[in-house]
């Protein structure tokens, strides 16, 4: 580790920045840089701004649990080896200048390496993938992995020096403050999480249609704050209400071990505006701390998935995805569809619940069939 870090120091030295390496004797307290003439972040920016390697730059953590940290990733003089250095953090575990991981390139935007930041994780192998402006780091075996998400915030241009392609999702010139996912229930009615739209001034519902993405204005129809559910009504003269929704809303409780898959729009700023799906099983009939309103699922749920759909393989909408746990092994939660049915029944207007014929099928064919009915929600 010390040898690899010294190589990173060599690159900083080449930029004529004065620094003093601190002791690396302790994994718990391995502060690295004491910069006299510039901040650590500015030094890393100088390196990244002149680099053609897409992984180099400044990243923010992207967590739902309140933890925040900012890291810089720069290449050492050993070509293809990178260090992830803490710039700032609200976590006691991390100190400015700590190297929390080392990565080695093994292919196009693919990396392997080790975590270094504390005695609990030191030396554990990781696999990292750079997808657009999002770095996803997986620690542990694929079926029991912990996933860490970092969003790239500098440089703001792509590796070839051109501007990042802007999303064509919205025709609204305003920038959305929040985003999430939703699922069509009937006609112009969309189900989502209450926490996605609770601070709304204006809501846009985006459909990825055959001739491109189209956004329509929507209003809140009714909410269930306690169970974190909401129904939205599209109020737009350009919108043609959907007919014949191809799935049912399950009223029965699903068994542990049932195969499921989620559909939604996580991390659109970094992953793009195409729909994403993850699969897994129902791990428990209760959610966080025994919450009876939710399922615990093994399908990973990321920021932006909130309000999306959870299906079984028989064409049933069995839940609305609501949260993920970054520090746990593939743990997500989904609000049971029975609570959604209760909200539909209490709505101020009559809503026809979809009653499609249940047909067992493959995930790939169901995803293709259901994609037009899963929406991207933008809150302005």
Order of SSEs? HHEEEEEEEEEEHEEEEEHEEEEEHHE
Largest sheet: 8 strands, antiparallel, barrel
**Rg from alpha-carbon coordinates:** 23 Å
* First-to-last CA distance: 46 Å
Strand line-up across the major sheet: 1-2-3-4-5-6-7-8
Instruction: Give the amount of beta strand, in percent.
Output: 35-45%
- Which blocks of ≥5 consecutive residues have pLDDT under 50? 15-37, 158-171
Proportion of residues in helical segments: 10-25%
Overview of this protein structure:
- This protein has 380 residues and is mainly beta.
- It folds into two domains: 2-154, Lipocalin, CATH 2.40.128; 166-380, Thrombin, subunit H (Beta Barrel), CATH 2.40.10.120.
- Helices cover 13% and strands 38% of the residues.
- It is built from six helices and 21 strands.
- A hairpin with a 7-residue loop joins strand 1 and strand 2 (69-75).
- The model is unreliable at 15-37 and 158-171 (pLDDT under 50).
Please name the defining characteristics of this protein:
single chain, 380 residues, mainly beta, Lipocalin, Thrombin, subunit H, eight-stranded antiparallel β-barrel, six-stranded antiparallel beta barrel, 13% helix
Report a brief summary of the structure.
It contains 6 helices and 21 strands. With 380 residues, the protein is mainly β.
Give the helix/strand layout.
Blueprint: H1 2-14, H2 40-49, E1 57-61, E2 69-75, E3 81-89, E4 99-107, E5 110-115, E6 125-131, E7 134-139, E8 146-154, E9 178-186, E10 189-192, H3 194-197, E11 203-209, E12 212-224, E13 229-234, E14 248-249, E15 259-264, H4 268-271, E16 276-284, E17 294-297, E18 309-312, E19 316-325, E20 331-336, H5 337-346, H6 363-370, E21 374-379
């Amino acid at each position: 580790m010390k040898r690899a870090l010294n190589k990173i120091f060599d690159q900083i030295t080449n930029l004529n920045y004065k620094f003093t390496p601190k002791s690396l004797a302790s994994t718990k307290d391995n502060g690295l840089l004491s910069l006299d003439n510039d901040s650590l972040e500015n030094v890393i920016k100088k390196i990244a701004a002149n680099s053609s390697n897409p992984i180099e730059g400044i990243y923010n953590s992207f967590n739902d649990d309140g933890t925040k940290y900012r890291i810089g990733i720069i290449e050492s003089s050993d070509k293809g080896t990178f260090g992830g250095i803490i710039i700032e953090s609200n976590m006691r575990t991390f100190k400015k200048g700590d190297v929390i991981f080392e990565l080695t390139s093994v292919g196009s935007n693919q990396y392997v390496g080790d975590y270094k930041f504390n005695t609990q994780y030191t030396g554990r192998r990781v696999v990292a993938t750079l997808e657009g402006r999002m770095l996803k780091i997986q620690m542990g075996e694929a079926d029991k992995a912990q996933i860490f998400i970092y969003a790239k915030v500098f440089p703001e241009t792509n590796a070839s020096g051109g501007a990042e392609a802007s999303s064509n999702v919205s025709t609204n010139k305003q920038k959305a403050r929040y985003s999430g996912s939703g699922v069509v229930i009937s006609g112009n009615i969309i189900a989502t999480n209450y926490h996605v739209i609770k601070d709304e001034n204006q809501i846009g519902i985006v459909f990825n249609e055959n001739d491109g993405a189209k956004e329509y204005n929507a209003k809140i129809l009714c909410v269930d704050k306690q169970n974190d559910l909401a129904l939205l009504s599209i109020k737009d003269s350009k919108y043609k209400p959907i007919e014949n929704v191809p799935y049912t809303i399950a009223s029965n409780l699903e068994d542990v071990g049932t195969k499921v898959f989620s559909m939604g729009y996580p991390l659109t700023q970094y992953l793009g505006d195409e729909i994403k799906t993850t699969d897994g099983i129902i791990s428990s009939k209760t959610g966080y701390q025994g919450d009876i309103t939710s399922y615990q699922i093994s399908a990973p749920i990321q920021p932006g998935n909130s309000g999306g759909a959870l299906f079984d393989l028989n064409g049933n909408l069995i839940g609305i995805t609501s949260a993920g746990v970054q520090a746990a092994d593939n743990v997500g939660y989904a609000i049971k569809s029975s609570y959604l049915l209760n909200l539909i029944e209490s709505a101020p207007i009559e809503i026809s619940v979809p009653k499609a014929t249940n047909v067992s099928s493959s995930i790939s064919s169901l995803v293709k069939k259901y994609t037009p009915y899963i929406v991207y929600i933008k809150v302005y």
